[in-house]
Amino acid sequence: MDARKEGLLQNARFSAQQPRLVSLTPFFLTCAAYFLLWVPDDPPSWVGALVKCLPVLSLAGFLRTHSGGDCSTLLQMALLFSALGDVCLIWPQAFLYGVLAFTQAQLLYTWVFGLRPLRPGLLLPVLLVSLPFSGLLLSHLQPGMVLPLMAYGLALSTMLWRGLVRGGRARWGAVLFTISDTVLAWSTFIQPLAHGRLLVMATYYAAQFFIALSAFQGPRLKTN
Q1: Distance (Å, rounded) from C-alpha 113 to C-alpha 103?
Q2: Alpha carbon of 13 to those of 192, 199, 215, 222: distances in Å?
Q3: What is the C-alpha to C-alpha distance for residues 82 and 201, in angstroms, rounded to an integer?
Q4: Pick from 2, 57, 62, 138: most CB atoms within 10 A?
Q5: Beta strands per DSSP E along the chain
């Protein structure tokens, strides 16, 4: 009887933690505001910075309201670092500060996704994609950009690996984040793309959305 009651209480706590779609209304509205206003073409401003980072901040607020525990806290911190990176990247002179902020965010995401099970086999496809692209990007970087961007690339690749291992929403978030940053790097340093900014931001917001929702995934599967 006690075991049954305990099981019912656990199920109730689990159900209470599941978010409703309406709870994400601020995220969807702020994303719509960003794309409707389309501020990237405007001169850098604090208004543009606010519009750009509001979707990510709304996800941090969503997690604070609807989830708890160490996982949620770390994800909130990562989202705040991402928002800081969003702001910094608006001003060219603050670019490296933005890279530093996003590097910290990727490390936090990796911490949340965990290092067990290790699954080294999933690291191979990540390396097969990231190493050639890094080599190509390296040839287009100014000397002062090399170390910060290579460090960020390592953090991003590690996050992608662990997201693939974690599976579920974390996997989708990690893949979309990698696509977003790859398109951004190509468009910024190699060759501008006609609709690059639209693709970058659409995949970026989707990535943050899935990673935030990974806080509600079940426990990681244990494999031998």
Answers
A1: 15
A2: 49, 38, 14, 23
A3: 13
A4: 62
A5: none
